What we know:
The chain is of the alpha+beta class. Helix content is 39%, strand content 17%. The strands form two sheets. It has a seven-stranded mixed sheet, with helices on both faces. The two termini are 44 Å apart. 47% of the residues are buried.
Amino acid sequence: MNVLGCAIPGISRADAESPRRPGRRIVSSGHWLGLLALIILLPLGSVQSAPLPSRDLTLENGLRMVLVRAPRAPLVVVQVWYRVGAMDEQNGKTGLAHMLEHMMFQGTESTPPAEYSKIISRHGGENNASTSHDYTNYYAKISSEHLELVLRLEADRMRNLVLKEKEFLSENKVVQEERRVRTDADPNARMMEKYRALSYGEHPYGRPVIGPMKDIQGLNLADLKGWYKRYYAPNNAILVVAGDLELDGAEALVRKHFGPLKADPDLQPVHSPPLSIPKAPKRLEVRDAEARLPIWVAGFPFPSGMDSKSQDDAFALDLLMTAMGGGSSSRLNQSLVRHKKLAVSARAGGGGFYGRSGGMGSIHVTPRPGVSLEKIEQAVFEEVDRLRWDPISDRELERIKNSMLAADVYEKDSINSMATTIGRVLVSGGDWKLHTEKFTQLVRAVTADAVRDAAQHYLDPQRVTVGILLPEKRTPTQKRPLVESSSKAGTPSPAEPSPSADKADTSSLVLKGVTP
């Protein structure tokens, strides 16, 4: 079971939170060469693949159903997406969405606790689940002959979950340990959690999906029952089934198992508050004795690609961030890693493309030993400045578009990736056909002027949040010395210690050499 959205979008989570955006991957060199050759040799418009046979409809109880026939192998993928995630929680009761995700495997009246996954496994399948700020998702991949089995199990737990104290106490300890291992014991994750909170401010995206430990420990069975009753209903769910299936037969099975489920007449529409736009730069500095390497990150608020009003900007930003740090030929990698030898790694990602409220376009750099963070920051913002004011060349733009289209072709080889893209778009209110069948047209339509305009607006130096993680030597009496400071650029926090002779004062690093 995965917790998504724990770091800044665009930085981690290979499947649903890839370095670029869910479902769109940078293609490895072996696949890339063949796919790129294919794309270059074909006319620009011919790369668009023919739409697969599909069916998109809503049942009487409000369940949205999308069926896609892709008989490449005798397999089907079944995904159930609920329009509820960590964003819908309240302060003091966070971690509920993720905690219930765990409890969804603890049985119904007809399925004993922990039997769901065992049943799928006995029939040769695999399954898992994930929670993000925007959604909760359950999925299974299995031989197409067992499609009805999965549909029956999913329909059963959608409305008939049995929540008991014994199983809850056990799973709560599992989640606490997950929190300890993934966040509390990892200095990078600890820093990124604080950075996310500073980046998003009061927006619920600033809270960790798993929740802080005190909230996890404070959850009770009544909380989970209330959450389940409020959000787990067919009229708050999207069912995506893709693979080796017959559309008529699959629809009949869905109607058989999900059709009798009652809708929730009191269901409230999802709440997607807009991101607040900073009026001045913000920064966070964390010194941690357990950190092994320094880290430098920066983020800018980006709009959602699911909103028709910001869709064109979102696609331009996707190309922009690919140019900035999407692979070995990107500007950051070429400049900081290869030529100037300042960094071990440098990457960027256009986060928030599928987000209900958008997200953060992020830059992440690990400096070489002995290289100051001041040099890193100046070099990064020189590249930001170039993108803001100098038009991207036709050659570079074409290379980026080819990279994205190659990745799209590669993705469509996987029915799981295809189904994930459909579900991710729908759960955030987007048009899945627009983002699958017309993806090539949307990418090809982005111009160099659109990229520059997006850079000038969204990479505004006044919008940036910078985060720094610095290793700190531990004295024999220290357990985990952790010194933090957060402030606007050039204004150190009152709690920030005075820098020692061997620690540079980084409070004034932001935006050096950047044209306002």
